[in-house]
Amino acid sequence: MDLQYNILEVAKYIGLNIRLDMNGKVEVEARCPFCDDSSFHLSLNRVKNVFRCNRCKETGGMLQLYAKIFGVTTKEAYSALKEKLPSAFQYAHPKNQALANVYPTRPLEERNAVYQRLLSLLSLSDIHLRNLRKRGLSNEAIQRNCYRSVPLVTEVRQSIVKKLLDEFKLYGIPGFYTDYNGTWDMYCKSGILIPVRNAAKKIQGLQLRLDDTSNRKYRWLSSNYFQNGAKAEPWVHVTGNIHSTSAYITEGPLKADVASHLSGDRLFIAIPGINCTERLPDVLKSMSIIRVAEALDMDKLVKPEVSKAVETIRNIVQSCGIEYVPFKWDSQYKGIDDYLCFKMAAGQ
How far apart are the C-alpha atoms of 314 and 294, rounded to whole Å? Predict the structure, then answer.
């Protein structure tokens, strides 16, 4: 048996603000103590006993979490925890004993086929339709982009999944998993499903715009750490005129869809988060882009983490041999979509 650490015990001991609805889950969300976090960006993995902030990118294990909080070495953290919190140390499962049978993510063609069929079986609620219209999207654009509402009724949702099983294998498709009875189901939180497409319009994954935004606004349709599930990757979204040699880079697929629509189908490339840029170089190199306008939210003027992300994007764009141009607008409108929606309403 291997001696292992219990990072959740340490987080509670330190006094981190942990979401109360995460009991029993492998990944628990908390407010990050290392950045100005109000939306539970810190992920605590109870299987791997590591932490990661999806906002400021601080990472580490149990000892690093304690050490960084109290400004001590990891050796001092170990001694302190052994004395003050012996329950943080536990005997773990053998190294090769998996808690859940998680599959590698299936290839793009298979994911696209499953997601296309899934969206064809779903509908969009009136409240979500009004939400999208309020953002500036037309009925035609909403229909073309295939936004759908998550089916919340268990019987309805599992009936849809059963239809998918008649055509596809769902092992390795992010968002699908088997419950404790062995019944196939899909990740369920109330919100709008947003297809995240590549330049060929293939659906790489689905992002979920949550109805309850008290903790976070968006998350991937993922089933990582669920039985027979799979992990969603930080796919980059491409929307608009893919033949254009000029593109705008922003954060968030839905924001990019709205901005592209309001700007007359201009080419937008959306990273899923301000620090999720690892796939951006390949996307830029795969297209005929010679000029990029960076259009991240205007809080880049006041938030260090956003301005740092802007610098990273600039370096990526220029390293691809592409002209980089910063794009700014009236800062009272946070996002490029907000600004363009205002302009449309003002008839400009």
Answer: 8
